[in-house]
Amino acid sequence: MTYMHEGASLRDKLITFAATTSMTLMLGATSSAAAVVKWMHVELDPKAVAVWEEIATAYEAQHPDVDIQLQFLENEAFKAKLPTLLQSDDVPDLFYSWGGGVLQEQSKTGSLQDITAAFDADDGKLRNAYNSAAITGLSFDGKLWAVPYRVSLVSFFYNKELFAKAGVKAEDIKNWSDLGSAVTKIKSAGVVPIAGGGGEKWPIHFYWSYLVMRNGGQKVFEAARTGEGEGFMDPAIIKAGEQLAEFGKLEPFQPGYLGASWPQALGVFGDGKAAMILGFDNTEANQRKNAGDGKGLAPDNIGRFAFPAVEGGAGAATDTLGGLNGWALTKNASKEAIDFATFLTNTDNEKKMAQAGMILPVAVGAEAGVTNPLLADSAKQLAASTWHQNFFDQTLGAAIGRVVNDVSVEIVSGQMTSEEGAQQIQDAFELEQ
């Protein structure tokens, strides 16, 4: 890879490389700096690049002996090439991680640097600077393998006008039974209760995953994930599936939901044809993109509420499900690389990225930078999270995750019993051992 002439500005050093399967951007230059930090990501949004450029410039100004080089790969190329890069001489110092099973496997191969000691130094100064649930989610066997960066949260979004038409109040939906009652009431008003994307399957796994979390709590899920006790045949997991099956009998989704993609489900919600959708923190923006008129629901017509609690369940109502991303440090990454990763994710810089609408931050205090009301509400819930669990299909790995997604759809649609589904997941888990 080539670089622009030494002394070019950080903006001038942004070079585009095109290829059939990937595009790489390098932010940096051949430099006499004592330390080079290679930083790899998948983001190509010019607005995001501009913010990172500003952060990198500030760091280089404070550390003139450090040269930050930022490389981008297209998403699929990133995933395909990263394993090879980690074993090559051109290994990045830090790279974007989705966490979960992939990060855990990378930690086992010796490709990553254990950064626990750095976070525990000075009486845990760094550890205490991040949301504790994010730290826990990026840790395996008591060791931290990535610097927390951002989270996403799965929660319900609803159409305020359609709720009013049905006489339903979001604040009354506290427990799982409340959600069922709301669905029945909304249907009675001639409205589709929920937009579902069953064709892609993973949007439905949110329901099964949350119900497992609410019924069993972290202890049951961790036991199943690590092959302890009754695994995925635990009674709390069986109960979760049974609740999902009963929910499916209410026919809560739009006709044809089993063939609908996620963008189509967002379109159904954005077109005002369903009262709710279980989605991500970016749902408000994405429903506009997928609505038939390109405008979707007005922001002030969209509300949000947390996935309800389950009566008698071991899980807390403050436990959350969603993505958890970080910056993983490779085994030979320098102390400068770790220092930059924690500078990138400090409160001020995470607040700056939050203000730009780039992230839901994990640095303590940075949630104040989130200005969009719905995002701010999500950030507030995440700040109080007692256990933030990465998506089940991400945490369990591709093979088991695929079965979880399949089973979730088949249970809610009445094609499979909860026990049959749990057994299929357990069988898939045992095949991986």
From TrEMBL:
<dbReference type="InterPro" id="IPR006059">
    <property type="entry name" value="SBP"/>
</dbReference>
<dbReference type="InterPro" id="IPR050490">
    <property type="entry name" value="Bact_solute-bd_prot1"/>
</dbReference>
<dbReference type="Pfam" id="PF01547">
    <property type="entry name" value="SBP_bac_1"/>
</dbReference>
<protein>
    <submittedName>
        <fullName>Raffinose/stachyose/melibiose transport system substrate-binding protein</fullName>
    </submittedName>
</protein>
<comment type="similarity">
    <text>Belongs to the bacterial solute-binding protein 1 family.</text>
</comment>
<keyword id="KW-0574">Periplasm</keyword>
